[in-house]
Design brief:
By secondary structure, this protein is an alpha/beta fold. The chain contains 18 helices and nine strands. Helix 13 crosses helix 16, helix 16 crosses helix 17 and helix 17 packs across helix 18.
C-alpha cells in the first residue's frame, strides 16, 4: 500500500471513530492496527490509564474478517477474582453456589469473534494459565466441567501496568506475555502528543457547546502553551473532564492562563504534575523539595531503627545465663527480664546522635526541609510536622538539633 493510500486510510479511520490527533506515535499505532487487522495474531496494547486504548481493539475487529461476528470488551480488573473464571470460560449448573444454569462464558459466546481483555495484567495467576491454554490450543474447560470445549476467538489485550516488572514480581506469567505480545502497540501518553492536546480541548469544548447550547470556550495563546506544558497524569480522560468543568463553570468564555489555573491541579509536591510557569524555562524547585523530603524521612527512619536496635541489644545483654545445677536446674535459673516490644522501646526517651556522627549533607537537607515546612505553615510546628509525616515530638528534636528551637 502506498504512503498516500495509508494517509487516506488513516484519515478515514480517524473520522469513523472520532479520533483526534496527528502526532506520529498515534498515527503509527493506527497504521499497525490496520495492518494486523486481517490476521488472527494476538495484540497487546500497552499504555497509561486514560490514553484511549479501548479504541484500537474496535478498529482491529471492524477491519478484520471477523467484523460480522461478535465483539466483547471485558474489563478484567472489575470482575471479582472468585467469578472471573466463570465469566470468561463459563460453568456448569451446580459448580458453585448460585450456578443455577449452565453458562458458556465469553469464550463460548464469542466463538469466531473478537475478545478485548482490558487490564489483562490484573488477571489472577490461575486464570492466566487457563488463558494461555486457550491461546495455544483453542481449548478450555468450563468451571465444574470435565469436557473440553473448543473456541476460535481473536484476542486483543491491553494493560497499563509494567508487565516486565509484574513478571519479575511473579504476578504475571512470562509465557503468557510472549503469547499476547505477538504484535505490541504502544499508545502514547497525552503529554507526548504536543498540539493534539489543543485539538482535543477544542473537540470537547465544541461537544459541550452543542450538547448544552452554550457559547464554546476558546483558549488564548498563553493558555494553549500552559495546556501543553501540563503533564496530564490522567491523559485524555482528565483533559475531557477539565474541559467540561471549564465549559460549565467558567463565566469567561475566552480562557486565559489565570482562568485555566483554577481548573488544572496545582499540587507542587506531586511527581505526576509539571510545574506551571509563564516562562519557558524549566524549574527544579519542585524536584528539590521532593528530594529533601525523601532524604529527611529516610534519615529519620534510620535514626529510629538505630535507636530501637540499640535498646534491644541492651535488653539482650541484661539477660544473664547462669551455670545450671544438674541436680536442680530450675532452682538456680535467674528470672529473665522480658524484652520490650518495638512499640515499648519506641516509647522510651533517647538521645539523638551528635551532629558529628551524622552525614553533613543529610543534615543540611533536613534543616532546609524543616525551614521550608515551617515557612509554608507560618511557623506552626504542628502543621509542619504533619506535612513532613513526623510527630510533633520528633519535629521538636530536629529543631533542637539544628539550634532552631528558640
Amino acid at each position: 500500500m502506498s504512503a498516500v493510500m495509508n494517509s487516506a486510510e488513516l484519515q478515514r479511520i480517524k473520522q469513523r471513530y472520532n479520533i483526534v490527533g496527528n502526532c506520529d506515535a498515534l498515527n503509527q499505532v493506527l497504521d499497525v492496527a490496520l495492518q494486523v487487522a486481517p490476521t488472527d495474531l494476538s495484540v497487546l496494547i500497552i499504555g497509561e490509564s486514560g490514553v484511549g486504548k479501548e479504541i484500537i481493539p474496535r478498529v482491529i475487529h471492524d477491519n478484520s474478517p471477523r467484523r460480522r461476528e461478535k465483539y466483547f470488551a471485558i474489563n478484567c480488573g472489575s470482575i471479582p477474582e472468585g467469578t472471573i473464571d466463570s465469566e470468561l470460560f463459563g460453568h456448569v449448573k451446580g459448580s458453585y453456589t448460585g450456578a443455577i444454569n449452565d453458562s458458556p462464558g465469553y469464550f463460548g459466546v464469542a466463538d469466531k469473534g473478537t475478545l478485548f481483555l482490558d487490564e489483562v495484567g490484573e488477571l489472577p495467576l490461575a486464570t492466566q494459565a487457563r488463558l494461555l491454554r486457550v491461546l495455544e490450543t483453542g481449548e478450555y474447560i468450563p468451571v465444574g466441567a470435565t469436557e473440553v470445549k473448543k473456541t476460535d476467538v481473536r484476542i486483543v489485550a491491553a494493560t497499563n501496568v509494567n508487565v516486565r516488572q509484574a513478571i519479575s514480581e511473579g504476578r504475571f506469567r512470562e509465557d503468557l506475555y510472549y503469547r499476547l505480545n505477538r504484535i505490541p502497540l504502544m499508545m502514547p501518553p497525552l503529554r507526548e502528543r504536543g498540539e493534539d492536546i489543543v485539538l482535543l480541548f477544542r473537540l470537547f469544548a465544541m461537544q459541550m457547546a452543542e450538547k448544552y447550547r452554550m457559547e464554546r470556550v476558546t483558549l488564548t495563546e498563553e493558555a494553549r502553551q500552559m495546556l501543553m506544558r501540563y503533564k496530564w497524569p490522567g491523559n485524555v480522560r482528565q483533559l475531557k473532564n477539565i474541559t467540561e468543568q471549564i465549559s460549565i463553570l467558567s463565566k469567561e468564555r475566552t480562557i486565559t492562563p489565570e482562568v485555566l489555573a483554577k481548573f488544572i491541579p496545582q499540587d507542587r509536591e506531586s511527581t505526576q504534575l509539571a510545574v506551571i510557569k509563564n516562562g519557558g524555562d524549566h524549574s527544579f524547585e519542585n524536584e528539590r523539595e521532593i528530594l529533601y523530603k525523601i532524604l529527611f524521612e529516610l534519615r529519620g527512619n534510620v535514626n529510629d531503627m538505630r535507636r530501637e536496635m540499640s535498646q534491644l541489644k541492651k535488653q539482650l545483654a541484661d539477660v544473664q545465663t547462669p551455670s545450671i545445677n544438674p541436680i536442680n536446674p530450675i532452682k538456680q535459673m535467674a528470672p529473665i527480664t522480658p524484652i520490650p516490644t518495638l512499640e515499648e522501646a519506641d516509647a522510651e526517651e533517647y538521645i539523638e546522635p551528635t551532629p558529628e556522627q551524622e552525614n553533613l549533607n543529610l543534615s543540611d537537607l533536613g534543616k532546609q526541609m524543616l525551614l521550608k515546612a515551617l515557612e509554608r505553615n507560618n511557623g506552626n510546628r504542628s502543621k509542619a510536622a504533619q506535612e513532613l509525616g513526623i510527630s510533633d515530638r520528633t519535629l521538636y528534636r530536629r529543631l533542637k538539633q539544628y539550634g532552631m528551637d528558640k
